[in-house]
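User: Before I run my own analysis I want an independent prediction to cross-check against. Here's the chain; please return only the structure tokens and, at the end, one sentence I can use as a sanity check.
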Amino acid sequence: MAANLNDVAPRLTVQEYLDTEPLSDVKREYLDGMVVAMAGASDRHGLIVTAMAVALGPLARKAGCQLFIADMKVRVQALRGTYFYYPDLLLSCDAADRESPFYRRQPCMVVEVTSPSTERIDRREKVFAYQQVPGLREYLIVDSASAVVDRYHRARGESGAEWDLSRYDQGGLRLDCLGAELTLAEVYADVPELAATAALAAEKSTSA
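Assistant: Structure tokens:
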């Protein structure tokens, strides 16, 4: 999810943010000194996140990874400063990346589910920010209005490695971090109209 830019707190240092965030009544993202309250999510948004967590949880456990839903921050050390975001899903597979119980520096995958108020940030600001995260191999942008997933991917999580973008509107979604495939039907399982669209697309793909 993205931040509500109408609710901006005074500028804080990184340490002030980390010290006060556990005490805050609302989750806040940190944008190089600017602290911004998170906007609420719709029921559809929550259903998609939950469905993905249900599908990915056993795969993450089998791979020895940790899967977090909405409450784990990713720390981004970007050219313009330090940022903390709350991805809708965060997959951490590096056992050495445990310096804090509140954030990860090197997740293997992050997932953002779009909403009308967050889509522009998910597709622009966060694409740039997440691509600067060392160790990150996959960034998924899951559309909540249609059965479409965009996957930013690099073969290795190395700084400077080239990213490629693939759009999935049918069939399976390959996840390198887990060595597995996730179907769009699983992603949208709890949103009937989108699940039906995904199932129909998969049927057409199979029969083609």
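Sanity check: The domain at 40-207 is CATH 3.90.1570.10 (tt1808, chain A).
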